User: Fold this.
Amino acid sequence: MPELPEVENVRLGLADTVVGQRVVKVTIRRADIVQGLCTPAGLLRDRTIARIERLGKQLALVGDVSDNDANAGDGPCVCIHLGMTGSLRYYPPDGAFKPDAHTHVLWRFGNGGRMAFRDPRRFGGLWAFPSVDELKRARWSGLGGDALAITPGRLHAQLNRTRRPTKSALLDQAVVAGLGNIYVDELLYGCRISPLRPARDLTMPEVRALVGRMRRLLTRAIRAGGSTLRDYVDAGGQTGGYQLQHKVYGRTGQVCYRCDRALCTTTASGRTTVYCGSCQT
DNA sequence: CCTTAATCCTGGAAGC
DNA sequence: TGCTTCCAGGATTAAG
Assistant:
C-alpha cells in the first residue's frame, strides 16, 4: 500500500518522464473515480505538465497556464491518491501497453507516451481543481505537515492534543501526512515507543527524536524504492526493496531482532499492529 | 473525546 | 481440484 516513500518514488519517476510533456488526449474509463471537473479538460488535456507536487500520500499534477485562465500564474491541477492498490504508470512511446478492467484513466502525451491510473480496489481516486490554490484550500488544508518536513514543535503540538494511542495519532493524516500502517510500526519500533502509549504523554525530547528517526526511515525507504508487499510499483513498473528491511511489519509470530523475545500483535484504529512488548514502552 | 464497526473493493491465501 | 471464507487496509461515516 503506497505510503509516503512509495508515493515519492512515483513522483520522482513521473518528474523524469511526464513533466514538460503536453497532454493531447485524456480517456476517462470510469467517471466515478474522478471528483470535481470530470472532463478531459479538467484532467489537463491541452496542458503541459508543469510540475508534480506531493503532500503526504497525495500527488498533484500541475498544468501550465493558458492565455484564457483567470488565475494567472497558477494552472489547473489534478490531485491523485493511490489508496491501497493504485498505481500511476508511465509508458514510453515505443513500449507496449494494454489497459485492463482496472485501468480507470489514461493520458496521452505529445511525444506518444502514455500515463495510466489503475486501481483494482478503487480506494484511490482523482480530484480535479481549477488551481493549486484551490486544491490546497479545499483538500490539503486539513492535512498535517508532510512527514518529511514537519517540525518537532508542530508534531508535538498535534500529539499533545489527544489521548489516543500514539499509533492511532500517527496514522491520522491530520496529525502528520504520509505515514501508513507499515511505516508507523517501523517508526515506533525504531523509537522504542509503544504504539499503545497515549500520544499526549510523548515528551518534546521524545518527539524530537521521533521526527529525526522518521526522516531517516522515510529517506532510506525512498532510496530503497519503497516497500512492495503485493501491488506497489513505481511509475516505471519497478517494485520496491524496502520490505526486506522491515523490522516488525509483517513479522507477526516472529521474534524481536533486538531482544529475541516474541513480537506482540494487537489492533489500533482497526489496523494490525506489530511491536516488541519488551523494547517498546 | 474516543472507540469499534461498517463501508467502499478485489484478489491472494487459507481452509475444507 | 474447486469451492467458500477470510483477510489486507486508507479514509470516511455512523453508532456506541
User: Anything to note?
Assistant: The longest helix of chain A spans residues 204-223. The radius of gyration of chain A is 20 Å. Helices of chain A lie at 4-17, 132-140, 152-160, 166-171, 181-191, 204-223.
